[in-house]
């Protein structure tokens, strides 16, 4: 299987490295051509989970990721409805992974996109992500497990793809209907987006290749350290290299620590935010984008984690946890440490019984 997949992560990385900067060029926020956490945060706001008016928009890229993975899994006969692996723990891991990401201001995807565009404030986040993953790997070596999932009824596997369809219907209703309950930003990052068809098409393409390739920023490090397998790491390196080249060609590379788009320069909390997010994502088995893809191929446990991300975004903005270019939220330190404690306790005591 590894040999069959060896070139697919590189293909996915190359496509991702070109598509994400292009999305930013055509309207998405700066250094945010594709960010699973930020885009789910915008969807959370659009659905009314939080009232931060500048980050509310149903991002077609997220819809495309889910449906593209759904199509790919069917074509390659990999659609396997499954569920039952510690759903409540996965939900709260999603909540804390989102809180950590919003303290940093981006998921691992956006962290690498920020670096590829010269945003050196993301270096502290990179260090934090690696530390978080290494802590998670330590727990895996000590026997950590959320338990095994099991085959489920096919209807269970269709829930997240149907959720994607509903989101698309709500998006169209919000854009073209009257008296819509969906909220849209009129200023700020939520008001910045690429054309609908371009965004949706990019999401479908990336969802397709990510499903086939198993592309995942967390797995790139985890598999290299644990299994000595580097095929996903090669895809990640291809992504960063192509994103750098594309940003240079588009005039989007601006090196420095100051005046970077939608970023702050608090190195300590950039680091700690990504330690929390990286640890939570390692324990759950993959980055937010990977979880969206898994939910599209029938993994209900991944779908529960995605719901946790949506709720976590609401919590972060409703309780002054999310950062802004001015700095971290007033209550962020408390929740970052609470999240780290939750993840560490889970890592120590959650072990599969035989």
Keywords summarizing the entry:
about 350 residues; mainly alpha; two-stranded antiparallel sheet; 15 helices; Sulf_transp_TsuA/YedE; transmembrane
Please characterize this protein's 3D structure:
It is a single chain. The protein is mostly helical. The protein has one domain (2-349). Helix content is 65%, strand content 1%. It has a two-stranded antiparallel sheet. It is globular and about 50 Å long. It starts with a helix and ends in a 5-residue tail after the last helix. The model has no long low-confidence stretch (mean pLDDT 96). Keywords: Membrane, Transmembrane, Transmembrane helix. InterPro entries: Seleno_YedE, Sulf_transp_TsuA/YedE. The chain crosses the membrane at residues 5-24, 57-76, 88-111, 117-140, 152-173, 193-211, 232-255, 267-289, 301-320, 332-350.
Radius of gyration: 18 Å
Helix fraction? 55-70%
- Globular, elongated, flat, extended or rod-shaped: what is the shape? globular
Query: Can you tell me the residue ranges where pLDDT is under 50 for at least 5 consecutive residues?
Result: none
**Can you tell me the number of structural domains?**
1
Q: What number is the mean pLDDT?
A: 96
Number of E-state strands: 2
Please identify the structural class as seen in this structure.
mainly alpha
Strand order of the largest sheet: 1-2
Helical stretch tally = 15
Strand residues, percent: under 5%
Cα end-to-end separation: 27 Å
| Biggest beta sheet attributes | 2 strands, antiparallel
Give the SSE string. HHHHEHHHEHHHHHHHH
């Amino acid at each position: 299987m590894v040999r069959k997949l060896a070139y697919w992560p590189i293909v996915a990385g190359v496509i991702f490295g070109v598509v994400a900067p292009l999305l930013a060029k055509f309207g998405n926020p700066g250094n945010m051509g594709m960010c699973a956490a930020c885009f789910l945060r915008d969807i959370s706001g659009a659905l009314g989970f939080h009232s931060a008016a500048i980050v509310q928009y149903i991002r077609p890229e997220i819809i495309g990721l889910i449906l593209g993975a759904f199509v790919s899994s069917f074509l390659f006969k990999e659609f396997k409805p499954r569920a039952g692996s510690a759903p409540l723990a996965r939900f709260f891991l999603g909540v804390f992974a989102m809180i950590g990401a919003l303290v940093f201001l981006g998921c691992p995807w956006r962290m690498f996109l920020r670096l590829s565009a010269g945003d050196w404030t993301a270096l502290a986040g990179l260090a934090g992500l690696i530390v978080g993953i290494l802590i998670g790997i330590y727990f895996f070596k000590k026997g950590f497990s959320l338990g095994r999932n099991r085959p489920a009824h096919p209807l269970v596997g269709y829930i997240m793809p149907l959720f994607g369809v509903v989101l698309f219907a709500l998006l169209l209703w919000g854009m073209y209907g009257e008296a819509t309950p969906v909220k849209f930003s009129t200023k700020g990052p939520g008001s910045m987006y690429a054309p609908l068809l371009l965004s949706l098409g990019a999401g479908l393409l990336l969802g397709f290749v990510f499903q086939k390739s198993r592309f995942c920023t967390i797995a790139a490090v985890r598999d290299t350290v644990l299994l000595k397998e580097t095929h996903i790491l090669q895809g990640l390196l291809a992504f960063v290299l192509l994103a750098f080249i594309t940003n240079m060609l588009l005039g989007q590379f601006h090196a420095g620590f100051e005046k970077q788009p939608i970023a702050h320069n608090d190195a300590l909390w950039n680091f700690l935010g990504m330690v929390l997010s990286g640890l939570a994502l390692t324990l759950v088995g993959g980055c937010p984008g990977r979880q969206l893809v898994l939910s599209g191929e029938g993994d209900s446990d991944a779908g529960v984690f995605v719901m946790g991300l949506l709720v976590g975004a609401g919590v972060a903005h409703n309780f002054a946890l999310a950062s802004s270019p001015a700095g971290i939220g007033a209550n962020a330190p408390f929740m970052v440490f609470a999240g780290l404690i939750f993840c560490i306790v889970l890592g120590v005591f959650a072990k599969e019984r035989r």
